Amino acid sequence: MADIDLNIAGLKKYFGGVRAVDGVSFSVQGNELIGLIGPNGSGKTTMINTINGLFFPTGGLIRFQGERIDHLPPYERAKRGIGRTFQITRVFHRMSVLQNLMVPALAIGKEPKKAIRERAQEVMEFLTIQHLTGENGGNLSGGQQKLLELGRVLMLDPTVIFLDEPFAGVHPELCQQIYAYIHEVHRNGKAFIIVSHDMDSVFSLSERVLVMNEGQKIADGAPDEVRHDEAVIDAYLGDASAEDQIEEAEVSNSTGRG
Amino acid sequence: MEKTTLKKLCLFTGLLLVGLLIPLIVKNSYWLHVFAMAYFYGLIAATWSFLDGYAGQFSFGNIALVVIAGYTSGLLAEYTGLPLSLGMIAGVLAAGVVGLFIGYLCLRFKGAYLSLFTIAFAEAIRIILNTEHRFTRGPCGLHVEGLFNTTSVVPYYYLIFFILAVSLFVMYRMLRSKWGLFFQAIREDDEAASAMGVNIVRYKIIAFVVSSIFCGIGGVFYAHFSQMLTPNFGQIATMGLVIGMAVIGGVENLIAAALGGIIVQFGLEWLREFGAWRMVIFGALLMGVVRFARNGLLAPMYKKFIGEEV
Fold first, then answer.
1. What distance in Å separates the CA atoms of residue B16 and residue A58, rounded to the nearest whole number?
2. Alpha-carbon dihedral sign for residues B74, B78, B79, B85
3. Element (DSSP H or E) covering residue A77
4. Given this model, what pLDDT does residue A212 score?
5. Chain B residues inside the 8 Å CB shell of A78
6. Distance (Å) from the alpha carbon of B77 to chain A's nearest alpha carbon
7. B88 versus B81: which is more confidently predicted?
8. Residues B184, A94: C-beta atoms closer than 8 Å
């Protein structure tokens, strides 16, 4: 099992007067599978962007494997083992599927080119996109692009993987496929933090759920605890559909769906 | 040997042979001069393809770098008596250093902002060279010594042909290495590339420096071939011509962009009897290519014949 230690302490990211992330603290120890939820604009994606280095924090500390990384650019954090996908897929459109997969592995430079090609082939087979090897990323369907992004992050071979809305706009059958991939990669010792508005997926997949609202962490615990947390229910009040989703997720989990 | 490798070998050997044989067939020094200038433009179009087509850095600075290299070599010879070879090396280095400087300053610029920055830079260079006429001879032109003790164009023809072939080979090898993939990833989405471990600062600067060095090599050749430098060679219209050449050939294919430069320059000379209308024809062709053939006219042919991109 990988020895994973990601520590976020008092993380802040302000945009002028907007406190997108406002003093969030949590840690990831070992290969946890964490769901990250919150209403729109609660700061989930901004927090991922700040941890991954696309944004430099306004305040707070990020330590990974004991080293402070909040001053490092994204590529240095990626090399240290922090991988991510994007809310709206950002595959390299005018590069082939194979080239998309080779970029991260070549960038971290741990293997010779031949071994990278072989691993890319394995990843494509794992994600069942091997028939698209030479196709340009931009020609793939939305779901296939989600798989390609997942493949790209696997080629980076990180220890902590942030998936930003991996199920958004994806056909339910493909969602099941993505669940299976996440479980398999997780079994191999990777930690996941999955951001999703799909409560059903988050509550059924995660061992632990973090909830954000207005830039702050309002809950952190096992899915059963979080589901009944007053602050979480309050945060979602006024968003009846979300409240319904929490209940629906509870029902579907108790009936074994997902 | 793989089929694509064999086809590439055939294509490149064929082009090399044709290039080597031309002076044996074409005896007219005017047309040999046109060929030499066409190769020069082919080289500069290739440097633009390298920088914009692969690394996505839309710069208007290439011709300014040609001018900087040419003037550095010419002025050093004029005022210091430095041997020509050292002056030429200094010219290439000057272009590389300025490219490094621009690359560093433009790290955070994208699209139109990068273009505007490099337009301003190119215009500043042109205006300085015009204004400091006591030192540069300004619009009257700086006389630069020739490289060969002959009036024949043939040595220059072979020199620029050799420079073009070697430059294309070196840039091609770079683009076929991991650098090429990183450049393209930066072109597509630099934030995503960085999140995937690509050091975007290093590779953007590498793209600028490599492109600038080859512009510099072209620049010192141009200076000593034309033997007369004027600041107006560095005007935006010349850069527009280079961009048009690369776009017509196929900006995302180094070889096609270089061939675009050669063919367009040759075509413009061939159409010289049409006067200013030849530029109208060129403009119409460019508009048609931009509208109907996004990756130029030659790049798709290259892909069809070879079976892969550069």
1. 58
2. positive
3. helix A74-80
4. 93
5. 194-197
6. 44
7. B88
8. yes
Q: What is the mean pLDDT of residues B183-194?
A: 96
- Whether residues B191 and A94 touch (CB distance < 8 A) is answered with no
Collapsed DSSP state (helix, strand, coil) of residue B183: helix
> Are A95 and B189 in contact (CB < 8 Å)?
no
Report the C-alpha gap between B147 and B79 in whole angstroms: 18
Q: How far apart are CA B136 and CA B133, in angstroms?
A: 5
- Provide ipTM, 2 decimals: 0.87
pTM summary value: 0.90
State the Cα–Cα distance between residues A16 and A21, nearest whole angstrom: 12
Q: Are A67 and A144 in contact (CB under 8 A)?
A: no
Determine the Cα–Cα distance for residues B137 and B209; give it in Å rounded to an integer. 29
Which residue in chain A has the smallest CA separation from B189?
A92
| Lookup: tokens for A123 | 């990843």
- pLDDT per residue over B230-288, tens digit each? 999 999 999 999 999 999 999 999 999 999 999 999 999 999 999 889 999 999 999 99
Query: Largest Cα–Cα distance in chain A?
Result: 55
Q: Do A92 and B189 touch (CB under 8 A)?
A: yes
Closest residue in B to A88 (Cα) is B192
Tell me the chain A residues in contact with residue B189 when contact means C-beta distances shorter than 8 Å: 90, 92
Residue of B175, B182, B184, B196 to mutate, interface with A, max A Cβ within 10 Å? B196
Supply the mean pLDDT for chain B: 94
How many Å apart are CA A170 and CA B191, to the nearest integer?
24
* Gyration radius (Cα) of chain B, Å: 19
Average of per-residue pLDDT across A98-125: 94
pLDDT digits (tens, 9 = 90+) for B38-47: 999 999 999 9
| Nearest CB neighbour to B194, from listed A73, A91, A152 | A73
As a whole number of angstroms, the distance between CA A50 and CA A8 comes to: 10
B178 and A113 within 8 Å at the Cβ level: the answer is: yes
